[in-house]
Amino acid sequence: MADRESKDSDKAGTLPLQTQSGVQPESNPGAAPRGIGTIAVHGGEARPKLGNALATPIVQTATYTFANTDELRDHFERRIERQEYGRYGNPTQRIAEQKLAQLEGAEDCLLFASGMAAITTTLFAVLSHGSHVVVTDDSYRRTRQFLTQVLHRYGIEVSVARAGDYEAIEGAIRPTTRVLVSESPTNPYNYIVDLERFGEIGRRHRIKTIIDATFATPFNQRPLEFGIDLVLHSATKYLGGHNDLLAGAVLGSADLIDGIRGLQAVTGAIADPFTAYLLIRGLKTFALRIAQQNATSQALAEFLQSHPRITAVYYAGLPSHPQHNVARRQMRGFGGVVSFEVAGDLDATSRVVDACRIPQIAPSLGGVESLIEQPALMSFYELTTEERLLVGIKDNLIRYSVGIEDSDDLIADLNAALERP
Ligand SMILES: Cc1ncc(COP(=O)(O)O)c(C=O)c1O
Question: What's the sign of the alpha-carbon dihedral 350, 289, 334, 248?
Fold first, then answer.
């Protein structure tokens, strides 16, 4: 027994975190498919891990050593897979990527320092001078800004089409169009894009399709199954889930991800090992969190819909939502963001936000703590009311990111806030 113990610990002492490549996804071809909760806990993680640890070790190193020049040659000739230098990846990051790839049903995943790093590097990787992009209108403000204000400086043209107007999307396509980009659900209006239709337009024109699925997460929607080429996430939101990390991810075929990885090695917006660790840890409770956030958001949306001070509710789980049927076809749940409009002006709406006691005022969404914001006074603060209206943001709009607090408490709190004059 003593013998065995010492042998095991010897082995553990020299065991790489995963394999040489840093990846040893659990592969058992004959095994029954696993549910999303099981993948969230175990996906991408080797058994055993370094030192027989149960939790994934954080490999906090900037560089990786080679035993000799032969190993160096083997690495560069791709005869072995291993880590080389921190900007090209690290083992903890690779485990997080494998877990996310399994959750999304993707061949591969690449992690970034933020959602925006994922979006910008992905677009730079698939576009070049003289190419053209079609993007749908309702989307995260910084994504819009990158597309409409930054890319043209590099000779890339961008057309904006209404999300849901598939004729306009197709009509905007040119011989130089390389990608169609959209969110679904969109931020902040929870507009739902018909993924099958969007993907089909792309395939027919031999154009890549990209969906930012941050609001949905792979618990609620897996765009690759509907023929989308690349899925983007701000992992800062639901994937991390605890409002304590910034990260982004792009997922798709190994080929496409490889090309993006090549550019990331140059531009350098990598996720550091500690962030990757936090992400792996946050993902353990992914399925529980999203199921709870879906259920509470549905209840909150229904409550709001029947409240006399609320003039509009934007939540795809409501049968009154214009794309409810599309959402039901392609989503398992409708997510944790409920956007709504209060009867009254900018100030009356601010009073409702200020009167809430549980959700805190902050940008971001998707974590365990509920957050509330008035987009006119957060992301779009520097615009005038008229300018905001041009981009579709009304002064009386509230975006509520539902956390995992008790549903009844959140509804009672919002009810009390709406009762105040
Ligand atoms: C839909 C969506 N995509 C991308 C981003 C950007 O992500 P990050 O803040 O991680 O850079 C956000 C941030 O709010 C978002 O809501």
Answer: positive
Q: Is 393 in the pocket of ligand 1 (CB under 6 A)?
A: no
Q: Which pLDDT value is given to residue 30?
A: 62
Q: What is the pLDDT of residues 255-313, one digit of tens each?
A: 999 999 999 999 999 999 999 999 999 999 999 999 999 999 999 999 999 999 999 99
Per DSSP, the three-state class of 112 is strand
Does CATH number 3.40.50.300 belong to domain 286-419?
A: no
- With a 6 A CB cut-off, is 236 part of the ligand 1 pocket? yes
CB atoms within 10 A of CB 407: 18
**Has residue 203 got a pLDDT over 70?**
yes
The rounded distance, in Å, linking the Cα atoms of 132 and 394 is: 30
Residue from 34, 82, 87, 351 carrying the catalytic annotation: 87
- Domain boundaries along the sequence of the chain: 2-283, 286-419
166 catalytically annotated: no
Looking at domain 2-283, does it have CATH number 1.10.10.10? Answer: no
Known catalytic membership, residue 212: yes
248 lines ligand 1 (CB under 6 A): yes
Q: Choose the residue to mutate in 136, 137, 142, 246 for probing ligand 1, maximizing ligand atoms within 8 Å of C-beta.
A: 142
Percent of the chain predicted with pLDDT > 70: 93
